[in-house]
Amino acid sequence: MSRILIAEDEPRIANFLEKGFKANGFTTTVVSDGNQAISMASSGDFDLLVLDIGLPGKDGWVVLSELRRQGQQIPVIILTAHDSIEDKVSGLEGGADDYVTKPFRFEELLARVRLRLRDSQPKSEDKMLLRLGDIVLDLRTRQMKIGDRPIELSAKEFILAETFMRHPGQILSRQQLLSHAWGYDYDPSTNVVDVYVGYLRKKLGGDRIETVRGMGYRLRL
């Protein structure tokens, strides 16, 4: 099930998009300003961003520019009322994958979303393997190897390993790791994240997961 992030500040349009995508089998999240759009689109939790240009905080052009400057490759489909050739060229050259003008038919947008998702999908075998250096994490078998050496992981260790490998080099806070592995309702004062990161660090090698004091943890590149 593909995950779509909708960045749209007009509730009527956001609701229309959310209902339409859900009815066609997608998982959706809606944000209403540019700062939220950047944060969520950078998380690695979404397969595609539908981006309105007229967002408060940071407009869609700034959102797109910052995402591409960060190296984020998430497919982006721009929604805008501006339909000039200059705007379309600017959007596509700025890193957008497609451009849809308002008003639009949902069927057209849906077709473009499916096309971009299909184009962005890696080969099925590669999609199920996360690699970082000599570490390979198989999402099908839920097994890890470092070189030729198999590493046994518990269920929580596997989730933490997957989270780190999807965000290599990025500092992940304890709250982020807690929400990924244990859910948002888990007691934020618990030290369970530190305990399990310690378990995982021993299995990967002590220097692979770095503690960033006061901020969280980072998997070294």
Automatic annotation (TrEMBL):
Entry keyword set = DNA-binding, Phosphoprotein, Transcription, Transcription regulation, Two-component regulatory system
Q: Which GO terms describe its molecular function?
A: phosphorelay response regulator activity; transcription cis-regulatory region binding
Q: Which GO terms describe its cellular component?
A: cytosol; protein-DNA complex
Residue stretches in coiled coil = none
Q: According to the UniProt record, which residues make up the DNA-binding region?
A: 127-221
UniProt domain OmpR/PhoB-type: residue ranges:
127-221
User: What top-level branch of life does the organism fall under?
Assistant: Bacteria
Post-translational modification 4-aspartylphosphate, affected residues: 52
Using the record's annotation, list all stretches that form the Response regulatory domain. Answer: 3-117
Q: By its UniProt entry, which SMART domains does this protein fall under? A: REC (SM00448), Trans_reg_C (SM00862)
From its record, what is one biological process in GO terms? regulation of DNA-templated transcription
The record's section on InterPro entries has:
CheY-like_superfamily, OmpR/PhoB-type_DNA-bd, Sig_transdc_resp-reg_receiver, WalR-like, WH-like_DNA-bd_sf
What is the protein named?
Answer: DNA-binding response regulator
Which species does this protein come from? Fischerella thermalis CCMEE 5318
Q: What is the lineage of its organism?
A: Bacteria, Bacillati, Cyanobacteriota, Cyanophyceae, Nostocales
